[in-house]
Amino acid sequence: MAKVANARTGNGYWSTQIAVSALLGAGSVGTSYVLLVVKPDEPGGAVLLALIGIALLTTFGWTLDTATRSTPLERALFAWAIMQHEAAGHGNDALAMSDAARARDGTLDADRIRALQALRPGNPYPAHLQPLNAPRGELATASRGLGPDRTRLALAALFLALTGLYFSCIPPVFVLGWPFQFAASIMAVFAIVPRGRGRRLGIAAASVSVLGTIVTLVLLLLRILQELT
Predict the structure, then answer these.
(1) Which stretches of the chain drop beneath a pLDDT of 50?
(2) pLDDT tens-digit map of 9-26
(3) What SS3 class is residue 206?
(4) Residues 80, 104, 154, CA angle at the centre, nearest 5°?
(5) How many CB atoms lie within 10 A of CB 223?
């Protein structure tokens, strides 16, 4: 695999994404609970804010998983492609993520690399020039060949598990967490069983789902005891 040569490592990009998504996600969910206490008759805004926070926490999970299982060069390549798109200013996040993933996996062809490089010439491609003529050679990643990519399924499971945990922590509607936890558990199993990308996220989703189920059962038990007394 080619080594990073006089280029950005991308560590700043990944650190920023991890910190921002974690802080904003946790802050949004926390604020949502406060709004439910302050304005219990208007739960819509609080729930919407919570879902935004849960989406950010799911993004945090994906970012942390991607950063920790990638090699330094893979992280640098992903961040490089994102920064090149930021220079273009077209706002096409889907295209930026697609190019970044292909750059990380070593499947970005030479013409596309040159086109991206032209967007911000001062930010050099973080690899030796040889991969430009052999895009699928030295840049073959360590994650390739480890099985199917179940990242999207695992992310969906994590989102549902976090949503279930959120509702489970609201005593008046704690039973609403069960459907989310049940669906998340099933999806997490399918993400975990075949080895490949998404397995660690699937394990995280399953863990959160189990936690949510425990919280739900505890609140249910407390309610039953309250009814009996």
Answers:
(1) 1-7, 128-145
(2) 667 778 888 999 999 999
(3) helix
(4) 115
(5) 13
